[in-house]
Design goal:
mainly alpha; Arc Repressor Mutant, subunit A; Four Helix Bundle (Hemerythrin (Met), subunit A); two-stranded antiparallel sheet
C-alpha cells in the first residue's frame, strides 16, 4: 500500500475534524500547531488548506487567515424554513396514527440524546436527532411531503450542517422540545398544535445558528479593524 503524502495526511486530518464538528465554522486554521501535531513542516499543511479552500470548506480572509467556512446563510435559511414547514406537516399527518411503539422508540432516542449531553459529541447527537425525527415523519401517509422532508435533510448534509457543533447550548433546548412534542403526540393533541410545535422546533435552531453567525462576523470585523 502506497504511503500517504504529507499533504494528504494533513488534508485528511483537517477534513475529518471539519466533518465531525471539532473544527466548527469560523475556526481559525493556524498552520504551525497543525504541522507540529503531524510532525511535518507547514508547507504540506498549507497545501492541504488550499485544497480545502478549493472545495469550499475553508476560506481565507486578510487579517484573519484561513478558517473553516461559515455556512452559506441564505441557502441554510431557505433550507431550514422549508424543512420546518414540510417536517411540521409530516409530523402532524402521522399524529392520528402514531403508535405506542413509535413513541417509545422516539423517547428512547431522546433519552440517549440527553445522556450524550454530558460528553457532547455533535456528530453523534446530530445522528440521533435525525433518527428521532425519522421515527415521527417516515410513516407520513403523503409521499410528496415525505419526499420534500427527505430532500431537506439531504440538503442539510450537503451544507455540512451540524448545528449543534457551534451552538451546543441548542442541544439542551432541543431535547426539551422533543419531550414536549412527544407529550403532544401521546395526548392526541390537535394536529395543528403538533404541526406548529414541530415547526417552531426547527425554526428555533435556525434562529440560534443565525445569531451565532452574526456574532462570528462581528468578531471578525472587530479583529480586522
Amino acid at each position: 500500500m502506497t504511503a500517504l503524502s504529507k499533504s494528504e495526511q494533513a488534508y485528511r486530518l483537517i477534513r475529518e475534524r471539519i466533518d465531525n464538528g471539532m473544527y466548527v465554522p469560523g475556526f481559525r486554521l493556524v498552520l504551525a500547531p497543525i504541522a507540529a501535531e503531524l510532525d511535518m513542516s507547514v508547507v504540506p499543511v498549507r497545501e492541504a488548506i488550499r485544497r480545502l479552500e478549493a472545495e469550499g470548506l475553508v476560506t481565507f480572509e486578510r487579517n484573519v487567515g484561513a478558517q473553516v467556512a461559515l455556512i452559506k446563510e441564505t441557502e441554510y435559511q431557505h433550507t431550514m424554513e422549508t424543512l420546518a414547514l414540510v417536517e411540521g406537516a409530516a409530523t402532524a399527518l402521522i399524529a392520528p396514527r402514531v403508535t405506542a411503539q413509535q413513541l417509545k422508540r422516539a423517547a428512547d432516542l431522546n433519552e440517549l440524546m440527553r445522556q450524550s449531553l454530558d460528553h457532547f459529541d455533535p456528530q453523534r447527537f446530530t445522528e440521533l436527532n435525525l433518527e428521532f425525527h425519522g421515527v415521527l415523519f417516515e410513516e407520513c401517509p403523503n409521499p410528496h411531503i415525505l419526499d420534500l422532508v427527505h430532500r431537506g435533510w439531504n440538503r442539510m448534509k450537503v451544507l455540512r450542517e451540524s448545528s449543534f457543533s457551534f451552538v451546543p447550548g441548542r442541544a439542551h433546548e432541543s431535547v426539551a422540545e422533543h419531550e414536549h412534542l412527544l407529550e403532544l403526540l401521546g395526548q392526541h393533541a390537535p394536529p395543528i398544535e403538533i404541526e406548529l410545535a414541530a415547526r417552531e422546533h426547527r425554526l428555533a435552531t435556525l434562529r440560534a445558528v443565525m445569531a451565532h453567525q452574526h456574532e462570528v462576523k462581528q468578531r471578525a470585523e472587530t479583529s480586522a479593524a
